[in-house]
TrEMBL record:
The gene is nagB. Residues 10-226 form the Glucosamine/galactosamine-6-phosphate isomerase domain. Its EC number is 3.5.99.6. The record marks 146, 153, 155-156 as: Part of the allosteric site. The lineage of its organism: Bacteria, Bacillati, Actinomycetota, Actinomycetes, Kitasatosporales. This is Glucosamine-6-phosphate deaminase. Transmembrane segments: none annotated.
Length: 261
């Protein structure tokens, strides 16, 4: 995979936003897969700034969710649907009918998972999927030991992931749902371009395991090594565990091909 080391989170956001803008100029109705959490916020802020400046027309862009909590009341501010609407869809000025996600409140959750997987395929597939990485190496909510061929499905969150997400629920882990719908690793790998953004020293071990370790279900993000077009963007802190950090820096400076994709 391609690894790009940037000075800080803001630089990572600017770089990825530029790549998204380039994609949209080539394909105006691109399907953009988005992630939630604090890490991708610089990407959305930089992309929205480009839209406000008239640097890119996103009026036909479609957006899809990576995952959704199960069981939160409709309209709950920490549902991922509400989060994506607030952080991505509204700032970009997109109509609601250009946004798609799984139904976390469905009575038949398994049927909702299957329907979402089919909807993504029916929409022509995801052109660029933005990903984060958990401290235990998970992507989406594919926790350690998830099948690398898995499709969209319901998952039980580990206590570590619930603890990591408690900050969005007033630091009360009891308020964090125990189950989620998530795109499976196999579903994620169907996207044409995977872009993983990681920032902060707390992600350094997970990044090193995903990038330089073996492909293993214990580190779900390592599955990106199997993808023909995967880019990992990390700040200096998140890159601190990489043995080949200097090589990655030299390679990118010598041939910054990813910026022109």
């Amino acid at each position: 995979m391609e690894v790009v080391i940037v000075p800080d989170a803001r630089a990572g956001g600017e770089l990825i936003a530029a790549a998204i803008a380039s994609l949209v100029r080539r394909k105006r109705d691109a399907l953009l897969g988005v992630a939630t959490g604090s890490t991708p916020l610089p990407v959305y802020e930089a992309l929205a700034a480009k839209v406000r400046a008239g640097a890119v027309d996103v009026s036909r862009v479609r957006v899809c969710q990576l995952d959704e909590y199960v069981g939160l009341p409709a309209g709950h501010p920490e549902s991922y649907r509400a989060t994506v609407l607030r952080q991505v869809v509204e700032p970009l000025g997109l109509p609601a009918d250009q946004f798609m996600g799984p139904d976390g409140s469905a009575e038949d959750v398994q049927a909702a998972c299957e329907a979402y997987d089919k909807a993504l395929a029916g929409a022509g597939g995801v052109d660029l999927q933005l990903l984060g990485i958990g401290t235990d190496g998970h992507i989406g909510f594919n926790e350690p030991c998830s099948s690398l061929a898995s499709r969209t499905r319901i998952k039980t969150l580990t206590e570590q992931t619930r603890a990591d997400n408690a900050r969005f629920f007033g630091d009360d882990i009891e308020q964090v749902p125990q189950h989620v719908i998530t795109q499976g690793i196999g579903t994620i790998l169907n996207a044409r371009h995977l872009v993983l953004l990681a920032t902060g020293e707390g992600k350094a071990d997970a990044v090193a395991a995903a990038v330089e370790g073996p492909v293993a279900a214990l580190v779900p993000a390592s599955a990106l090594q199997l993808h023909p077009h995967a880019t990992v963007v990390v700040d200096e802190a998140a890159a601190s565990g990489l043995k080949l950090a200097e090589y990655f820096r030299a390679t990118y400076v010598a041939k910054p091909a990813w910026q022109s994709l």
